[in-house]
Structure formats: C-alpha cells, structure tokens
Amino acid sequence: MWLKLLRSESIGDLLKPQFVNGRWRQPSINGRHRADLRTYFQKAGVPWIYDQETPEVDHNSPYNRKPKGNYVERNFEVRIANVRKALSMQEERYAKYRTDRMLNKPLKGYDRIVAGTLKAMGQAEN
C-alpha cells in the first residue's frame, strides 16, 4: 500500500473510486489504510485535507421535509369542530326524529279501528 503512495502524485486520487473503461474501480487505498494514514498524519501534526466535505442539508428539498402525518392528526381540529356542531344540534334532531317516527308509525288496535271508521264515514258523506 505504501508503494502506491510513492508512485502517485496525489493521495486524494488514491482515496477515491476511479471510473476506468466504463466501470467503477475500488479506491486504491481502502478504508482501513485510509484510517491508518489519517492517524499517522495526526501524529505528525500534518492536517488531513482528504475528507469529503459534507454538504449542508437543504430543508426545502422534498426528501428532507417533515412528514405530513396521517389523516387523523392533520384533520383533528376540523373533526372536533364537526363533533361540537353535531352535539349542539342533537336535541332538535332527536325531537324531530321522534315526532317523525310517531307520525309515520302504522296504526294498531283501537286507533286503527277508529281511523278506519272515520275514513268510512268521510267517504259516506262525500
């Protein structure tokens, strides 16, 4: 590995993968030897300039945006408002439902007989 360093003009080129004849080749100096070189540089007091700079995170990118959450979390306030509105109208709706049920219920027993007679009497008068 150290002989490669003597032949090369730049250590940086040996640390990067190379594109040769349409194929990517592994770096000449692998990660373990790279770490060894970094420690040798640090012990010698020479700055290590071969680390790749990490780009800043772009928070406006669609890949880095905050997840939108599920339907229940997003529409919680709207759902609470609809429940409160429905609860405020519950008394009137329940009273209307009861009266509709009573008026549309088929007649039974004595009520049926009386309604039939009144109907027959009304037809007889006409």
Characterise this structure.
There is one protein chain. The chain is mostly helical. Among the domains are: 2-44, no CATH class; 75-119, no CATH class. The chain has seven helices and two strands. A two-stranded antiparallel ribbon has the order 1-2. Strand 1 (18-20) and strand 2 (23-25) form a beta hairpin. The chain starts with a helix and ends with a helix. The model has no long low-confidence stretch (mean pLDDT 86).
Helicity, as a percent range: 55-70%
- Range of strand content: under 5%
Largest sheet: 2 strands, antiparallel
What form results from the Cα inertia axes? rod-shaped
Give the uncertain stretches in residue-range form.
none
Cross-sheet strand order for the largest sheet: 1-2
**Total helix count?**
7
Entry keywords:
about 130 residues; mainly alpha; 2 strands; about 60% helix
SSE layout:
Elements: H1 2-7, H2 11-15, E1 18-20, E2 23-25, H3 31-44, H4 71-74, H5 76-88, H6 90-104, H7 109-125
Antiparallel strand pairs: 1-2
Quick recap of the structure?
The chain has helices spanning 2-7, 11-15, 31-44, 71-74, 76-88, 90-104, 109-125, and strands at 18-20, 23-25. With 126 residues, it is mainly α.
